[in-house]
Structures are given as structure tokens and as C-alpha cells.
Design goal:
Layout lengths: L3 H9 L6 H10 L3 H15 L27 H4 L17 H5 L16 H19 L1
Length: 135
Amino acid sequence: MLSSIQLSTVQHSVWYAFGKITIQALLCSSENEERKVGVQKIIELRSGNDFLEDLSVPVCHRKIPSINLHATSLLELIDWSQSIYEPLLTCKLTILEVKNFINDPMQVPEWPCHGQSVERIAQQVTEAADKVHTV
């Protein structure tokens, strides 16, 4: 059972549980069944179109999703009946390319998650902390 502090932290950090991020995690999973579900969700979202042609879909609101705290798998984590969007990394792939993820997990390229300015400020804060700490 989660303590109230743990629960509060989990509930404020669930932006990783948006549908498109959960689908992305399914496609990268080591479990074949989870990858199949991820592929099926993308096919459903595209309504049979080979590409996601209409990129003018409404902006997805960044409302923190509710999660199932008793989930034992990614598939149980979120309410799939809510607004779900396709992961950005698959939007330009054909259905055939997406289906290939059933056999081979998607490999997501590595890139920095912070901009250069964030890295610079982190370095400055570290340097300032070192100066204060050594006094």
C-alpha cells in the first residue's frame, strides 16, 4: 500500500502515463503481446489509413491523466476510453512499418531531454553550491 506521500508524488508524476506515451512504451516492450496491443491501438487511431495524414488533429490538452494504482501491467495503467493520441515517433510510419514492431521492439533514438540552457543552468547551480558548501 502506498503512503500518502508516495501517492502524492505518483499522482503528480503521471504525465508519463499519457496514452501516446503508454503506446510508445508498448511498442518498445520486450513482451510480444504488449507490442501487438500497441500496434492495434495505432491502427485503431488511424482508422485504417496507412499514414496519419491529418496532422491538424486537435491539440492534446496536458491534463494529468488518472491512473489505476492497482495496475499490474501497462495495459491496465490508464483508461483507454479517454482521448488517446498516436505517439509522435510513429506518425510518419506506414501501417506495415508499425506492424514490424510486433516481431521487433521499436528502438527509440537517444536524444537529450533538456535544452542547452537547462544544462548550462544546472552547471551554474552546481558550481554555486560547491562555492557555498566549501566556505
